[in-house]
UniProtKB/TrEMBL annotation:
Pfam families named in the record: DAGK_prokar
Protein name, as recorded: Diacylglycerol kinase
Active-site feature positions: E60
Cross-referenced InterPro entries: DAGK, DAGK_sf, UDPK
Protein family (similarity comment): Belongs to the bacterial diacylglycerol kinase family.
Keywords, in A-Z order: ATP-binding, Cell membrane, Kinase, Lipid biosynthesis, Lipid metabolism, Magnesium, Membrane, Metal-binding, Nucleotide-binding, Phospholipid biosynthesis, Phospholipid metabolism, Transferase, Transmembrane, Transmembrane helix
Binding site for a divalent metal cation: E67
Lineage: superkingdom: Bacteria
A GO biological-process term: phospholipid biosynthetic process
Record-linked Gene3D superfamilies: 1.10.287.3610
Organism: Archangium gephyra
Residues spanning the membrane: 24-41, 47-66, 87-109, 121-140, 147-164, 170-187
Main location: membrane
């Protein structure tokens, strides 16, 4: 059971390290989490947003799995390979577009709450944007000092801890904590892979 969990975890981290779109989804999910933990939303709206985020991650991971499978089957140009990869990518695109529309609809529906949440939004921007920056730094493929990653992880954790006491939703705060952990693990994995390549 533990081994299965570890394999699945490795699959998730590998996708974040090697798929640019997955990194975009991860940072976008953190921004969704910051909005969800900043303004009071109804249960149905929270569930919908979290489900959309999970569905996009699922689709991107599956897209990555299909790409590997196709590359395993053929390294040459093949019309069926192209169709398979394009269809898998289209699945992610459809979900991502739908999520943007749903997110916008939820914000429009709660516009009065947004207008009444000035101080909460100011706090989310002041602490949340640096948190998003920490996650962005961790997932960027650029080579950097290990200390940059350490500062980003510790800085992100401190910012999350500062945001947590006044959160509008502990589920979104927990989601953001999970995203920070995934970003930290991806940074570590990328470093390990680089070290292996240089040996
Ligand atoms: N073996 C192949 N035969 C034909 N077309 C291919 C092949 N491999 C890739 N392609 C085309 O190139 C596109 C990009 O494929 P690639 O394997 O580079 O995935 P990617 O860049 O990781 O895609 P994504 O946009 O999902 O991140 C595919 O959507 C497909 O149109």
């Amino acid at each position: 059971m533990l081994a299965s969990f570890l394999h699945a975890w490795n699959g998730l981290i590998h996708t974040v390290v090697h798929q640019r779109n997955m990194r975009v989804h991860l940072v976008s999910a953190l921004l969704v989490g910051l909005v969800g933990s900043g303004i009071e939303l109804g249960l149905a709206e929270k569930v919908t947003l979290i489900f959309c985020v999970l569905l996009i991650f699922f689709a991107e991971i599956l897209n990555s799995a299909l790409e590997h499978l196709v590359d395993l089957a053929t390294r040459h140009f093949d019309e069926k390979a192209r169709l398979t990869k394009d269809a898998a990518a289209a699945g992610v695109l459809v979900l991502a577009t739908g999520t943007v529309v749903i997110f916008a609809a939820i914000l429009v529906h709660n516009w009065q709450t947004v207008l009444d949440s000035g101080p909460q939004i100011a706090r989310q921007v002041a602490l949340g944007l640096p948190l998003a920056l920490c996650v962005l730094v961790l997932v960027l493929p650029r080579p950097r000092s290990v200390w940059v990653d350490r500062v980003a992880v510790v800085g992100g954790a401190v910012l999350l801890a500062a945001l947590a006491p006044r959160t509008a939703s502990s589920v979104f705060t927990a989601m953001n904590a999970g995203l920070l952990v995934v970003a930290g693990a991806a940074a570590r994995q990328r470093r390990l892979e680089r070290a292996r390549q240089h040996r």
